[in-house]
UniProtKB/TrEMBL annotation:
Signal peptide: none annotated. In the N-terminal section; belongs to the acetate CoA ligase alpha subunit family. Residues 705-726 are annotated as: Disordered. Coiled coil: none annotated. One of its GO terms (molecular function) is metal ion binding. This is Acetyl coenzyme A synthetase (ADP forming), alpha domain protein. Residues 710-719 have a biased composition (Acidic residues). Residues 499-535 form the ATP-grasp domain. Pfam families: ATP-grasp_5, CoA_binding_2, Ligase_CoA_2, Succ_CoA_lig. Keywords: ATP-binding, Ligase, Nucleotide-binding. It comes from Desulfatibacillum aliphaticivorans.
Length: 726
């Protein structure tokens, strides 16, 4: 944990540069918040034209303060910020929070100012949060600081929140206050000229007062470093992280030469980063706080078996439907539980799951039912649903929940449905740290989120969260790439040439040969046998099927020679000026399940691997998943399981299951290939045909491009750190 960030978050003394008594000013708001927020350190307002600010002595400059200053909050006009930060560094401050706006977010001169600011903090060895931020808040036990211009100080809690947007912070604070949600740390980091989301994650990951981390992100500085830090938080510190990433609809540039490129919008990279880091991505602030409330107030479930206790049949069915839809299971009660329920509930009640205690239920009936189900060893968590009837005592029912949960290490979420009639009970639940949701579907989704995280972090010998390294001749591939890029900046290799690279990396390629005339087909067929498939070889024709450039199931020499001529005619008709290098004659693969694997070079994060259902309709179906390379073995397994293709691969209508291990092996080889050779900017293996045992590469294409940062040195090893696999 960088000491300077700790100093920013836990200073003993604060200078507010730009403090003022003017009503409605940011400078006054920050000083007032620091005082009213309970800061027990020393506060130094800085204003050259004031003797005091909010009844605290003011100083003309930070250099005039007689004592040491740990941290400075800067609220002066943008052109003055660099000089003021220089002064703070000279005074010995190890951290600054620059609230001032007018930097890179406005472009032009603002970009220049921000670059100057970056240079100063780097040269001076201090850390900076901002510029263009709301400020920071710390409510840790024994320490309280509100160095922001937020409307109010949040309640203490165990949730850490970081945001690039200051406006989002103010809305989140207001929402949290309305729901009685507290925070351990609340940090607006704005333009992140220095301290980034990665630094703050590292700090919160080790913060003993933070159990849950929430993020609003607009971009990520370094995807791989972000993953390294987040993975440690997930699997070492076991802290759940929830993220809103804005910009889902914004697509990156699409490469028409690749299925993978056309499917890999910029947002797919962020999904991959989150999935590989154990971070759950949420759609909006409501969803974020629904999940965060459950994580921060309840123990994690051991499994996905839940019980439902309700006083109304309709909501009970709704809850059941939502649970099944989200992958939760209704627990099967043991005989002892059923006897207890039968003894304490009326004959008209349902003692199976969901338990219906009937509309006239009082708190005692609810309490008996809830005690019985949470005591059942086959129940991992419960949802209590209440609809306000005339005879329902809402407050007493709410009061029984924490009473039942004493000593229980299982999550119980409530859904007291409505707003007005249930308000007194909801308030009691919130005050006693019992999560409540207006509708049961919301409670189900929150519990599903907890189950997902619990499953993700539990020890599992079958899940290897480590890199796999294959012993391959990467130098041979380096030589091929160097030769192909000798005279061009970018080139797409046809299957015949792409297969050379794939073969070196251990992919199961089919035997093939290139024919440049009908006469050359005979010796090739004599060598390969029949049946064969024939494909056009042309860098000018990307999708061969569209051009009539593929012919299947060719059984004889006569068919093959006729196919050769027809393929060339079709190609010329499709693109008259296409340069044709010949026809690939290849062993015809047996039928199996067709999938696609590929890679696309994300401009921000580097190579990103793809998996999905293959064939000619892959772009229309769009059932694909992405992960950044290099991948852990567990990432390869998860990207297969996260698609609908996994259902088909599992075997349908009596067909045997496909070889998932063979797919995983190809994905990990792909991950190593594109990591070892960043010149591979796009790549498709489509289809990769999978069988009950093994798989075969039926078609492939690789696009190479010179690297902007390339030099004459070659990687001696071509290896990434990992585990050797024979």
């Amino acid at each position: 944990m960088p000491a300077t960030i700790k100093t920013i978050m836990e200073p003993k003394s604060i200078a507010v540069i730009g403090a003022t008594d003017r009503i409605g000013s940011v400078g006054r708001a920050v000083v007032t918040n620091i005082i009213e927020g309970g800061f027990t350190g020393v506060l130094y307002p800085v204003n050259p034209r004031a003797r005091s600010v909010v009844a605290n002595r003011a100083y003309p400059t930070i250099k005039d303060i007689p004592d040491d200053v740990d941290m400075a909050v800067v609220i002066v006009p943008a052109p003055m910020v660099v000089d003021v930060v220089e002064q703070a560094a000279e005074k010995g401050a190890s951290g600054v929070v620059v609230i001032t706006a007018g930097f890179k977010e406005v472009g032009g001169e603002g970009v220049k100012l921000e670059n100057e600011l970056k240079a100063v903090v780097k040269e001076r060895g201090i850390r900076l949060i901002g510029p263009n931020c709301l400020g920071i808040i710390n409510t840790a036990p024994g320490f309280s600081m509100n160095a922001s211009f937020a409307q109010a100080m949040p309640a203490p809690g165990n949730i850490g929140f970081i945001s690039q947007s200051g406006a989002m912070c103010t809305a989140v604070l207001d929402l949290a206050m309305g729901r009685n949600i507290g925070f351990s740390k609340f940090i607006s980091f704005g333009n992140k000229a220095d301290v980034s989301e990665i630094d703050l994650l590292e700090y919160l990951g080790q913060d003993p007062d933070t159990d849950v981390i929430l993020m609003y992100l607009e971009d990520i500085t370094d995807g791989r470093k972000f993953m390294d830090v987040a993975r440690k938080i997930t699997w070492k510190y076991k802290k759940p992280m929830l993220a809103i990433k804005s910009g889902r609809s914004e697509e990156g540039a699409k490469a028409v030469s690749s299925h993978t490129g056309s499917l890999a919008g910029s947002d797919a990279s962020y999904d991959a980063i989150f999935q590989q880091s154990g971070i759950q991505r949420v759609e909006d602030v409501n969803e974020m706080f629904h999940y965060a409330t459950a994580f921060s107030q309840m123990p994690l479930p051991r499994g996905n078996r839940i019980a439902i206790v309700t006083n109304a049949g309709g909501p009970g069915i709704m809850t059941t439907d939502a649970a099944v839809r989200h992958g939760l299971k209704l627990a099967e009660f043991g005989e002892r539980t059923k006897r207890i329920l039968g003894k304490n509930l009326p004959p008209t009640a349902n003692i199976n799951n969901p338990v219906d205690v009937i509309g006239d239920a009082d708190y005692q009936r609810y309490e008996a039912a809830l005690r019985a189900v949470v005591d059942d060893g086959d129940v991992d968590g419960a949802i209590v649903v209440l609809t306000p009837q005339k005879m329902t005592d809402v407050l007493e029912t709410a009061q029984m929940v924490p009473r039942v949960l004493e000593g229980v290490v299982k999550p119980v979420l409530c859904s007291f449905m409505g707003i007005v009639d249930v308000s007194v009970g909801v308030r009691y639940l919130e005050e006693n740290n019992i999560p409540n949701y207006s509708f049961p579907e919301e409670a189900v989704r929150a519990l599903k989120s907890m189950v997902h995280f619990s499953k993700d972090v539990e020890p599992n010998e079958n899940i290897r969260r480590e890199y796999v390294h294959y012993d391959v001749d990467s130098k041979a591939v380096n030589a091929i790439i160097k030769e192909k890029l000798k005279d061009v900046d970018r080139v797409t290799l046809p299957q015949s040439e792409a297969n050379e690279i794939l073969k070196i990396y251990g992919f199961p390629v089919l035997q093939n040969r290139v024919a440049t005339s009908p006469e050359e087909v005979k010796p090739i067929m004599d060598e390969l046998g029949t049946p064969v498939v024939m494909k056009i070889i042309s860098r000018d024709i990307v999708h061969k099927f569209d051009a009539g450039g593929v012919m299947l199931n060719i059984e004889s020499l006569e068919e093959a020679q006729a196919a050769y001529d027809q393929i060339l005619l079709n190609a010329k008709a499709f693109k008259e000026d296409a340069v044709i290098d010949g026809v690939l004659v290849e062993q015809m693969a047996e039928k199996g399940v067709e999938i696609i694997i590929g890679s696309h070079n994300d401009p921000s994060f580097g190579p990103m691997c793809m998996f999905g259902l293959g064939g000619t309709f892959v772009e229309a179906i769009g059932d694909v998943s992405f992960r950044l390379a290099p991948m852990w073995e567990s990432s390869a397994v998860e990207m297969i399981g996260s698609t609908k293709a996994s259902t088909i691969l599992g075997g349908l209508r009596g067909k045997p299951p496909s070889d998932i291990d063979a797919i995983k092996d190809c994905l990990l080889r792909l991950s190593q290939l594109v990591t070892d050779h960043p010149e591979i900017v796009e790549m498709d293996i489509n289809p990769l045909i999978v069988y009950p045992k093994g798989c075969k590469v039926a078609d492939s294409r690789i696009t190479l491009a010179k690297r902007e940062d390339a030099d004459d040195e070659e990687d001696e090893s071509g290896e990434d750190p990992g585990v050797a696999v024979s």
